Amino acid sequence: MDSLSDNELMLKVKKGDVDKMGLLYERYYRQLYRFIFNMTRQKELSEDMVQNIFLRMLKYPDGFTGFGEFKMWMYHIARNVVYDHFRKVKRTPSHSDVRDFEERIEGELHTDAPIEKEQELKALENAMEKLSDENRELLILCRFEELKYTEIAKILNTTEGAIKVRVHRALNQLKSNYLKIEN
Fold first, then answer.
1. Could you confirm whether domain 113-183 is CATH 1.10.10.10?
2. Topology adopted by domain 1-108
3. Mind listing the pLDDT tens digit of every residue in the chain (183 residues)?
4. Where in the chain is the domain with CATH 1.10.10.10?
5. Residue 92 to residues 35, 37, 74, Cα–Cα distance (Å)
6. Which among 72, 128, 154, 182 counts the fewest CB atoms within 10 Å?
């Protein structure tokens, strides 16, 4: 049963076999959690949002036509969940230590890391937080989630060329933010 593609599983869910959503959940929980945590920086909120994404997929399976890739549809829903939350709370994410994310994903803290590395990570985290929501999302999708530019273009409903330009600009802004923090 694990050999079924994501699209095949979601089409089965759409036809009423809701148990197949469990396989999709197992495949994508960590990836969605990582994406949302990088957007919100809040552990419990990220966990709740992942649950909300899967509930929306169950509640609105007709949104998946089967012609596109399931993963792109899932990320589209995830973006909507995150931005719905930001609209409700008027964008007030709490500042969370990067170790919360490592603890949740890997199950342990990496306390033996050198102090310099910790400071660099904190500076990078602060530089990321200073980016606009759109730029942060782009960098998370392409660098942390390792999606291809074509996949991001589908999620954001734009062209691959536009994504390349926007990512380049976002990286330049991140670099500028980082250098300001370091100095």
1. yes
2. Rna Polymerase Sigma Factor; Chain: A (1.10.1740)
3. 568 899 999 999 999 999 999 999 999 999 999 999 988 889 999 999 999 999 999 999 999 988 888 999 999 999 999 988 888 887 644 444 444 444 444 444 444 446 777 788 888 888 988 999 899 999 999 988 889 999 999 999 999 999 999 999 999 999 999 999 888
4. 113-183
5. 18, 14, 24
6. 182
